[in-house]
Amino acid sequence: MDSQNLVPGTKAAPENLGSVLVVGLGKSGRAVADYCLDRLGERVQSVTIVADSIEGEAAIWARGAQARGAQVGDSSLLNEDITFDYGIVSPGISESAPLYQQASQCCKEFFGEVEFAWRESSQESRWVAVTGTNGKTTVTALIAHLLSVAGLEAEAVGNIGDTCIEAVAQKHPAVYVAETSSYQLASIADFAPQVAVVLNITPDHLLWHGSFEAYAQAKWNILKNLPQVPESVAVLDAVDDEVRAKIRELKSQDAEQRGFAYIPVGTAKGARGDMRQACGADAAAFVDDQNTLVVAFEGADHRVGAVEELQIKGAHNIENALAAAAAAVALGVADESIVQGLRSFAPIAHRIEPAGVVAGVACYNDSKATNVASTLVALKAFEPQKPLVLFGGRDKMTDLGELVEACKSHAKAVVCFGEARERFVQAFAPIADTLPVLEASGLEDALDCALNHAEEGDIVLLSPACASFDEFSCFEERGDVFKHWVAERAKKAGC
Questions:
Q1: Tens digits of per-residue pLDDT, 118-170?
Q2: Which candidate, 399, 392, 401, places its Cα nearest to that of 419?
Q3: b/e string for 135-153 if b means 16 or more Cβ within 10 A?
Q4: What number of other Cβ atoms are within 10 A of residue 64's Cβ?
Q5: Alpha-carbon distance 98 to 56, whole Å?
Q6: CA–CA dist 283, 276 (Å, integer)
Q7: Three-class DSSP category at 108
Q8: How far apart are CA 316 and CA 280, in angstroms?
Q9: Could you report how far apart the first and last alpha carbons of the chain are, in Å?
Q10: What is each CA distance from 55 to 35, 58, 296, in whole angstroms?
């Protein structure tokens, strides 16, 4: 892109966006369309919006967009005689989908909303991008919290809070902390954050990407433009096998060839491993012998708080805290501010969230655990206690062998419910003589079943390892309803 044709003071925003094609009518698609329609007749010549389905709320919104000058319809609006200057695709539309393929062939440039927002953002703004199969939302929120405590104007955006383009249009923070999914990263071109955080990469969204290799490559796109940013840093969770393999690859390159610094979090042995000692890394984030979170970077050891002061539970959240602290250190935040921020950060809704106490039984809402990998993390969060765990919902048909093995050591009982009930019961059948395996129709019945089986001092954990769509519209609704049911039972029990 010719820098003479850019809007002054932006990362890479063209003075003339020309004809814009918006593909998809999800949250990000509508946000992009609104942004472009606000500039129609100025930087934007025309706005065309296409989607496979335009019904319900989307249809209402589409009528408003048409009144503002947009052309809205299905793929019939795309043909070989029309070429758009820019195409911006929603993350929910797979690269293999016919609409994606057809739309991309009609555009001079074709990318996603995160890329578009970064280009349109202020040249002076800084970006932190966070990705990983699990833990993205917690780390994104935690980094934004640490920066805010330090007095920086920071906004959590992307899959958390406003879309990136909404924040760029309205808020202009000094630092955008963006939760970025594999869907979004698959379509980036020039997007270049100052700090990129990769937490873990385990099989997920394989139908969208087509293979685990394609899924992992989309995640690693987060690093591809770091060399273009002076003093950029990657924070990489070395506890994860896939991420650790990437660290070995980066270590084999000299600093000039790599083009950015990196901070490994933990080692193969866990968060207490110091990668400097393990393999001679230049930097590391780890928990030391005094149970203190340490970020070693650019020759200094930053001691940023004690593990016992964290409000977020579990070994995975120690890794999350280290990753967030490392990102803050990379951005120059003082140690004292990081200590204060880590100490004051509370659990996020639906992520091992305290949901209330019923007759001495503590209930936790981990509705966000929609896959086995997430649930495996939650199971170990309460050691040495063993929770009664609620499994079920719409089955993702992933292998349950590792989950069954983990429950042998980390669960007091399991309750299987919803559409996935039968398959989960069958999976647990071989250990049913040593671990109580209970059955329930739906989530409410599962909660009551667990409470009836529990004793005072026990823990009931909703960590379903399934999607929510058999009973609920999303995992947020499932978690909110679960908390409501817990509150009702706590009230009846006089708690």
A1: 999 999 999 999 999 888 999 999 999 999 999 999 999 998 889 999 999 99
A2: 392
A3: bbbbbbbbbbbbbbbbebe
A4: 13
A5: 23
A6: 6
A7: strand
A8: 24
A9: 63
A10: 22, 5, 52
- Give the length of the chain: 495
The letter for the amino acid at 439 is E
CA distance 345 to 347: 7
How far apart CA 51 and CA 33 sit, in angstroms, is 12
Report the C-alpha gap between 209 and 159 in whole angstroms.
18
How confident is the model over 166-186, as pLDDT tens digits?
999 997 889 999 999 888 898
417 contacts 446 by C-beta, under 8 angstroms: yes
Q: Which two tokens stand for residue 41?
A: 């007749």
Spatial distance between the Cα atoms of 314 and 383, rounded to a whole number of angstroms: 8
Based on the number of CB atoms within 10 Å of its own CB, is 355 exposed (0-12), middle (13-18) or buried (19 or more)?
buried
Q: Do β-strands 195-198 and 84-89 pair in parallel, antiparallel, or remain unpaired? A: unpaired
- DSSP assigned state of 461: E
* Partners of 300 in beta bridges: 297
Which of 390, 282, 364, 327 minimizes the C-alpha distance to 152? 327
Spatial neighbors of 428 by CB under 8 A, at least 6 apart, are: 404, 407, 414, 416, 435, 437
User: Comparing C-alpha atoms, which of 234, 181, 137, 245 is closest to residue 26?
Assistant: 181
* Phi, psi for 353 (deg, rounded to 5): -90, 130
Tens-place pLDDT, residues 289-336: 999 999 999 999 999 999 999 999 888 899 999 999 999 999 999 999
| Backbone CA torsion sign across 188, 94, 368, 492 | positive
CB atoms under 10 Å from CB of 79, counted, come to 9
